[in-house]
Write a structure and sequence with these properties.
Layout: H1 2-14, H2 20-33, H3 47-58, H4 63-71, H5 74-77, H6 82-104, H7 113-126, H8 130-145, H9 152-172, H10 176-190, H11 192-204, H12 206-226, E1 231-237, H13 240-250, E2 261-267, H14 271-284, E3 286-287, E4 293-294, E5 307-312, E6 318-325, H15 326-334, H16 336-340, H17 351-369, E7 387-391, E8 397-401, H18 406-413, H19 415-419, E9 421-426, E10 429-431, E11 443-447, H20 464-496, H21 501-507, H22 509-518, H23 522-531, H24 536-543, E12 574-576, E13 584-586, E14 598-603, E15 607-612, H25 616-620, E16 626-627, E17 629-631, E18 639-648, H26 653-663, E19 667-675, E20 680-689, H27 692-703, E21 708-714
Parallel strand pairs: 2-6, 13-15
Antiparallel strand pairs: 1-2, 3-5, 4-5, 5-6, 7-8, 9-10, 9-11, 12-17, 14-15, 14-16, 18-20, 18-21, 19-20
This protein binds manganese (II) ion.
Manganese (II) ion (MN) binds next to loops.
């Protein structure tokens, strides 16, 4: 309870208008739901959420964030439900707690270098409100502080995870002190023997070090003050991890390392005075060439600003000095959190300024992370608007474009997995292949050797990789089909001329024709015929110049074109696999018209038959023979359809109907009129019409004629 009062005081200190009752309710609730639970240290569990709240209060975050610190483990570790949190604490708190619960469920199974960045990005992507991430970091920090109670294995694993994921995130957010502490704690957990040795060494040299620090501070402060600069100079022991790294890098022992101290000058002044102070430092001690860094003029991507220099100190040793203003220091220590907290004594009127500073900061790291994009609002951000992060069943993170489906995932794993993808489970549940994946989903792909890439997959995949692989596979399959089609067409034309394809192939005469006509082998010849770029009769004439043109009325290409030229409009009004001039016939059963949805089928010896997609026959035909067909937008070939008009039997009505049809520009090919037993006139017209829209317009027109009862299109 004492600690909680501290937390509440701190929140109030930052903003006197804070809603303390929210904090109190969160505290009481947390105490209730965690009752009876204990930490490994033996302390009541409640200590943990209160400590996390304390860290957040120290970071000067608002009461909502601090309350979320108190509640962060409630849904994950107790029987509390998300609804309960929302009912008791409102939408905002519930949203944040939900985010934390989701993050808590991520398992960082394979924290290898390759994966670490993806995990970091995933955490950022899942933190739709940046406060979620701040609470998560505070949670991790407290867990690291109490790591000693864990088993050796868990300790190492958590420490490594902290180094790989959380410390870099704190760094990215610009919260320097937290990054330092996390790294230091992780280093202690991972290298206890090294740490013990270092600490022993540092202990024995402490007095000497303190004298040295005092001497430097006194010289430097005097010179700075004499120059009229208001400042504070400090000298701190660097963190153990960086001292160790230096020793390793230079292969030296602790007694040879003089620069274990980092000196820092913090100015109560302007940006210009930072450079004035630098001049004094460089005027007092000789700078080491190449060691000066100006992060004031060129801030780091996370917003960090400071001057860094190394000089040869009073005892001839290397000495590192950082120089910055108070404001730069605040930013360095607290990063984005610095922009968040209310500025002391300036509550209210400065809120807008703070918000803008915060937005600017966000924009800055957005630039570092990915393309800058819009924000939901000042705190709710989607850092990766174009990406989605999902898990493989083994726990690896895959990074896919937003809107990605299980198929995109499958192709990202391997093109063979994509090609044979027959189904998918997301978080254990079967989903359709067009299902859109969300951050944190675990995706499992089901494959089948009989599954092959389908053209309709292109309608929903979003990744370039999946798209190009599917397109390629579909093209190969279509090519295969048109070759088969061409072979059939050619075989039939040859037979009509009394020639046998297999004999011609055996004798090699077809090789010659293939060379001269398409510059290839007979297979290419079949393709050319199948794609309609080479009329089969040309092949026949080559082999048998006296061969007669076919007698049967099929829509035959009239144009001769060489293989490889861009397709000309089709004479049939149909494109097969994107090509014009293919032998096609229209099925009599459904008589499709331009504008109707159609399917094509390769018919043995008769080219491609076009059916309406709704035609019953379509379902009876072999799907293997189906081929992609479209109406040719440029060709306009009138097609014959039957229209039946039922009307009262009165004089002049037939003339009115006929007039309607011809004034629409349609030709009547044939008309039959009969009378039904109930004395109604039934007129059947065969009209030539160029598309379904025109036909529908005319039928509407006829319907309006007085005495007409019904107008219908007749499909046999
Ligand atoms: Mn926790």
């Amino acid at each position: 309870m004492a600690r909680f009062n501290d937390v509440a005081d701190k929140v109030l200190e930052v903003n006197p208008q804070s809603d303390l009752s929210l904090l109190q309710r969160a505290y009481v609730f947390s105490a209730k739901v965690h009752e009876g639970q204990a930490r490994l240290s033996g302390e009541p569990y409640l200590v943990h959420p209160v400590e996390v709240a304390g860290i957040l209060a120290d970071m000067r975050l608002d009461e909502v964030t601090v309350a979320v610190g108190l509640l962060h483990d409630a849904v994950e570790d107790t029987l509390t439900t998300q609804d309960e949190i929302e009912r008791l604490f409102g939408e905002e708190v519930a949203f944040l707690v939900d985010g934390l619960t989701k993050i808590a469920r991520i398992e960082f199974t394979s924290v290898r270098e390759r994966q670490a960045e993806n995990f970091r990005k995933m955490l950022l992507a899942m933190s739709k409100d940046i406060r979620i991430l701040l609470v998560k970091l505070a949670d991790r920090l407290h867990n690291m502080r109490t790591l000693g109670f864990m088993e050796e294995d868990a300790r190492r694993r958590i420490a490594q995870e902290t180094l790989d994921i959380y410390a870099p995130l704190a760094h990215r957010l610009g919260i320097h002190w937290m990054k330092q502490e996390l790294e230091d704690l992780a280093f202690r957990a991972l290298k206890p023997a090294v740490v013990a040795e270092l600490e022993e060494g540092l202990r024995s040299s402490r007095q000497e070090r303190e004298r040295y620090v005092e001497a430097v501070i006194s010289v430097l402060s005097q010179k700075l003050v004499a120059a009229g600069l208001r400042c504070e100079v400090t000298g701190r022991l660097k963190d153990l991890a960086s001292i160790h790294a230096k020793m390793e890098a230079r292969g030296v022992g602790l007694d040879e390392i003089h620069d274990v101290i980092a000196f820092r000058v913090i100015l109560d002044g302007t940006k210009e005075q930072v450079y004035a102070a630098l001049g004094i430092v460089h005027g007092t001690w000789t700078p080491v060439p190449g060691r000066f860094k100006d992060y004031v003029a060129l801030p780091k991507p996370n917003g960090y600003q400071s001057l860094h220099t190394t000089v040869i100190g009073p005892y001839g040793e290397r000495m590192e000095v950082q120089i910055r203003t108070e404001e730069m220091h605040q930013n360095a220590e607290y990063g984005i959190a610095a922009h968040w907290s209310y500025k002391e004594g300036r509550v209210g009127d400065d809120e807008d300024a703070a918000k803008f500073a915060w937005l600017r900061q966000l924009l800055e790291w957005q630039r570092e992370l990915s393309d800058p994009h819009e924000f939901l609002d000042t705190v709710k951000v989607d850092l990766f608007p174009d990406e989605v992060f999902v898990f493989t069943p083994r726990g690896d993170v895959m990074n896919l474009p937003k809107g990605a489906t299980p198929l995109d995932f499958a192709y990202a794993i391997h093109s063979e997995v994509g090609a044979h993808c027959a189904g998918a489970r997301v978080n254990g549940k079967l989903v359709p292949l067009r299902h859109r994946l969300s951050d944190g989903d675990t995706v499992q792909i089901l494959t089948s050797t009989s599954q092959i890439p389908r053209k309709d997959w292109l309608e929903f995949v979003v990744s370039g990789r999946a798209r190009s692989k599917i397109r390629h596979a579909v093209r190969v399959a279509e090519k295969e089909r048109s070759r088969e089609l061409g072979r059939e067409i050619l075989e039939r034309e040859l037979r009509r001329a009394g020639l046998s394809l297999s004999k011609l192939l055996d004798s090699g005469s077809l090789d010659e024709v293939a060379r001269s006509e398409v510059g290839g082998v007979p297979e290419d010849l079949f393709s050319a015929v199948g794609y309609g770029t080479l009329p089969p009769i040309d092949v026949v004439r080559k082999l048998k110049p006296e061969a007669a043109p076919p007698a049967e009325p099929v829509a035959r290409p009239r144009r001769r074109r060489l293989f490889g030229r861009s397709p000309a409009p089709s004479s049939s009004g149909i494109r097969v696999s994107g090509q014009g001039d293919v032998l096609v016939r229209f099925a009599g059963c459904c008589a499709p018209l331009p504008g109707d949805e159609i399917s094509g089928f390769v018919t043995r010896g008769r080219g491609v038959t076009i059916h309406s997609k709704e035609c019953d026959k379509v379902f009876a035909l072999d799907p293997e023979r189906r081929i992609d067909v479209q109406w040719d937008a440029e060709a306009s070939v009138p097609r014959r359809v039957k229209v039946r008009i039922t009307s009262v039997d009165r004089p002049g009505i037939l003339a009115a109907i006929t007039k309607s049809i011809s004034s629409a520009g349609l030709n009547i090919d044939e008309a039959r009129v009969s009378t039904s037993p109930d004395q109604k006139a039934i007129s059947d017209f065969d009209v030539l019409v160029k598309d379904v829209r025109t036909l529908n317009a005319v039928m509407k027109e006829i319907e309006r004629i007085r005495g007409v009862i019904s107008v219908e299109r007749v499909r046999a």
